[in-house]
Write a structure and sequence with these properties.
Shape: globular
Distance between the termini: 21 Å
Radius of gyration: 19 Å
Strand content: under 5%
Order of helices and strands: HHHHHEEHHH
Amino acid sequence: MENSFHENRSVGLLLTFIGGMIDSYTYIRYEAFASAQTGNLILAIIQAYERQWDMVGKKLLSTLFFFMGILLAKFLIDYFKKKEMHFWRLFLLYFEAFIFFIISLHFLQPHPAIITIIIAFTAAIQWVSFDKINGLTYTNLFTTGNLKGVATNLYDYLSTKDQAAKTRFVHFLLVVLAFIAGAIVSVFSYRMLGTSAVLIIAGLFLYLALSETFLVWRFQRNTNILQKK
């Protein structure tokens, strides 16, 4: 717990659920993916052929800021590791809650390109900063790699009856189901609430930040009590 709260299964699955919501919401609302940059680049090439330059620009900017978000996340990991600050990811969760609340405000709605690049930048930081559940790698923003994990580990388990492969199969299956569930909820909530659906994402980030802050505080309090005995 001291330095790996972000690897808790509940954290990873909720972030993956949110990732499904983010990608679905961004595509429905802005016709661009928040994190699936392969899709953005393919759509950009198709739209360039059709001379839809405004759409091309939005997708290329999304990819650029996603790239910049990855660089920043790597810097943050190295920086806080050197400072021995283990719980900096809590601040990232509060930051994401704030960002998605800001995105819901009306003054930004006429500027879809700005919103798209903000989401892509923030999502990239999340992707790199939260990349393991109980030591097992996963992806919380898109699910191609997770599907590969489901298939390969299912095959390994059926072939060898290896319990480690079974554990990895269940791990990836839960992640895939969480992503799909998030995408489904995003579609229905957008149909019912419109752009206000993004507030659900902000609320989930805030809930996750507050709940993990409480768990970290309780852990540190109990640790201090034991040290004093």
